Amino acid sequence: MRKPIIAGNWKMFKLKGDALAFVEAVKNNVPAADKADSIVCAPFVFLDALVEATKGTNLGVAAQNMHFEEEGAFTGEIAPRMLADLGVNAVVIGHSERREMFNETDETVNKKVHAAFKHNLLPIVCVGESLEVRENGTTNDVVDAQTVKALAGLTAEQVAGTVIAYEPIWAIGTGKTATSEQANETCGYIRSVVAREYGQATADAVRIQYGGSVKPDNVVELMAQSDIDGALVGGASLDSESFLALLDAVK
Length: 251
Ligand SMILES: O=C[C@H](O)COP(=O)(O)O
Known about the structure:
The protein has helices spanning about 15-25, 45-55, 80-85, 95-100, 105-120, 130-135, 140-150, 155-160, 180-200, 200-205, 220-225, 240-250, and strands at about 5-10, 35-40, 60-65, 90-95, 120-125, 165, 205-210, 230-235. The protein has about 250 residues and is an alpha/beta fold. It has one domain: TIM Barrel. Strand 7, helix 11 (about 220-225) and strand 8 (about 230-235) form a beta-alpha-beta unit. It is globular, with a radius of gyration of 17 Å. Bound molecules: glyceraldehyde-3-phosphate. Glyceraldehyde-3-phosphate binds near residues 95, 173, 214 and 232. Glyceraldehyde-3-phosphate binds next to strand 8.
């Protein structure tokens, strides 16, 4: 039985006061730790305050990106050890917005996943196809290659402890959700890739989220699918009541 994981990705929204007000409203109403993982993925500048504000609660805090190097002359970048030092729990790696707009590649994604494990950060690794790929019928090939490259060099145990977020790019922020069958089919395919590369026990353990226009009114159906273990949610995670409604699906 895989523990569900719901992560709200705030992207580049909110000011610090809004972020703190959000966690005050949410932090004591999230599911019990043995039921589900509940996480907010916040801009770097709020992470310190949010880690402090959520201490002793079941609400986890994630970064939305990081560099893969330990330290160095990388102006404007954030090192994994800086996140670990703050007490951040998790990090989103390879979101399609970073792949499309900030030159993230399969190679840098893989380096970041290794760095996350080195610093005890839970990696939430994003894969997903464009509309063009979906329409030309090569979705499985694309997510297969992304998954293999992202996880290259990890042990089976590390893969089992990774979260993979399947996010079809055409469903992000568009209001177009993949049908629950489409989402489940591709999440199932990703699980079969993990089985092929790392064995069935690892595939049975790895958690796979769906992301793309998840809302309180479709989350229950999505979460009921056999291969969907959680959601990575953008727009509908910005409002505390909406986020709590998403969490109700896994309570
Ligand atoms: O990281 C979250 C995804 O990009 C989904 O965003 P969305 O829920 O606004 O479609």
